[in-house]
Amino acid sequence: MAYLLQVDFKMDGPFGDEMTEAFSDLAQSINEEEGFIWKICTENVETKEAGGIYLFQTKEAAENYIKMHTERLAGFGITGVNGKVFAINEKLSEITKGPIQ
Questions:
Q1: What are the pLDDT digits (tens) for 1-49?
Q2: Does 81 reside within a domain?
Q3: What would the pLDDT profile of 36-57 be if each residue is shown by its tens digit?
Q4: For a designed S-S bond to 8, which of 17, 51, 60, 74 qualifies (C-beta 3.0 to 4.6 A apart)?
Q5: Would I find Oxidoreductase among this entry's keywords (predicted)?
């Protein structure tokens, strides 16, 4: 069973193309995390929030990642990271075309 990790946090920027340039190396490093399948990167300029929706192979991998990522973000001065892990209902997700692989 795959597990979804939902992460969000307040951030003053950068956003858009500047965010892509600033965080490309970080994004590349996520591909090397144990149990990682994919991530959708999120941002909201109006509310000054960023984060992502991740898919991991196991609950343990998702929990280990959010712990590490929260500590890494603290190194950038970002606190108040919200991370939630959810089991995926694969049958319902297939009906709604959810990318669960």
A1: 899 999 999 999 899 999 999 889 989 999 999 999 999 999 999 999 9
A2: yes
A3: 999 999 999 999 999 999 999 9
A4: 51
A5: yes
The CATH number linked to 86 is 3.30.70.100
Q: How far is CA 17 from CA 14, 59, 83, 90, 98, in A?
A: 8, 32, 25, 34, 27
Alpha carbon of residue 84 to chain centroid? 10
- Residue 90 tokens read as 């694969």
CA distance 44 to 47: 6
Q: How far apart are CA 14 and CA 93, in angstroms?
A: 33
Contacts of 38 (CB under 8 A, 6+ apart): 54, 55, 99
Q: Would the pTM of this model clear 0.85, i.e. be above it?
A: yes
Tell me the residue type at 1: M
Range(s) of the domain holding residue 65: 3-95
